[in-house]
């Protein structure tokens, strides 16, 4: 391949990666955690105060909710720590719930659901951008286009030496060579996964805008015609009767909740559930749409195993993005691939920073680190480590904040952004080398708080909680090991590196810092 062509693709790969890398690190790290969004939400929620209403009382609760609110309300079919009431609905910013008390009377109270899983999911979809979720997802759709371009250009760069260099990790004094080998191994080894994630993220982030453009330019405006008149909740089929009709239409679908949405003359019931044998459209659930009065299937566009045509194609895209098929083996695979993806973007930034210094030295010029390299180094350390520390503290805080603060959702975001913004500011104030060691210890401490919170608050002995605590403990140990290795390599960076930092001249020597986790 001609070198001028390779050079063009290298430039494209570098700048698309640099622009998108930090956004994608947050999205991939949070995305790895969304594989276990439900267990995290259950870990963060206190045990329910009493038994939830049995199925024979569901119909009465549904009618009560219909009288309490004109908006949608949800009947939860499965018990769990994160389910605080059998039927829930929104009143402004408050979530209300209805249950049968000990005397068989319906009691309406404010419910306090766990929102921790939603925080992690929001970070995955928007990278934590301070804007509306819809707009944040659209920005990430554009970032995903750059991501796909970086993948293709990176493959073109590596093609001339792919056979010779693939799976070749050269560990030695040349840290940049080692990082490049590791970057290439992860990038090529997980290329199919990353291509799927990139293109499905484009669809996920931009599909609303694509649909709006299609309706504005290609299709005539269409309004669904519905029967007029009052929709009486007394005419609705009981929840168990609706579920029986759904089992006939989709035997493999396992429902978990029923959301009632009223419209003039008709009420539709969105039944969320799982079907591990098929990709699902929305995170880890699919949907069946039923008529509340007849139980007839009113829509199957989101029902796994029943979809046809373009709906099935879209669900395949979404399912492959979320990894919501194949059960635990696929989820754990996606978890580790998500962490590997975060490493890919982090290592790409390190390579760009060090390549600029090496290029100057090769040209015989005096090496003076430019402001752009120092800014990118500080951002890389602050954003990456701040994201991980902030998520850990927000998870741990769920146990200590419950019952202490009123706006629990807001406090989860306050904890995350306080640590994240603080870490970025710390990296700029202390410099990337010093800050990388200090923030790694911060990550270790924040992650260790997760199992500590389970011991100091209410203790959950469920298998899911034990897995979460064990994974957090291993994560804290890994961060501590990285921090110690960082400290041991402080004297190994070149004096002209952006990572070098003078700590004084005891004995006429100068201590220097190495790149983050370069050991």
Describe this structure in words.
This protein is 58% helix and 9% strand. It contains 15 helices and eight strands. The radius of gyration is 26 Å and the shape is globular.
Quick structural summary:
The chain is an alpha+beta fold. Helices cover 58% and strands 9% of the residues.
Order of helices and strands: HHHEEEEHHHHHHEEEEHHHHHH
Radius of gyration: 26 Å
The number of strands is: 8
The largest sheet has its strands arranged as 4-3-2-1-5-6-7-8
How far apart lie the N and C ends? 35 Å
Strand content: 5-15%
Overall shape: it is: globular
Structural class: alpha+beta
Helical coverage, percent range: 55-70%
| Mean of residue pLDDT values | 77
- Segments where pLDDT lies below 50 for 5+ residues? 217-229, 503-519
What does the largest sheet look like? 8 strands, antiparallel
Tally of helical runs: 15
Question: SSE layout and pairings?
Answer:
Layout: H1 3-34, H2 37-44, H3 58-68, E1 73-76, E2 87-91, E3 94-100, E4 106-110, H4 116-126, H5 133-158, H6 162-165, H7 175-189, H8 191-217, H9 239-249, E5 254-263, E6 266-274, E7 286-291, E8 297-299, H10 309-322, H11 328-362, H12 371-401, H13 408-430, H14 432-456, H15 463-488
Antiparallel strand pairs: 1-2, 1-5, 2-3, 3-4, 5-6, 6-7, 7-8
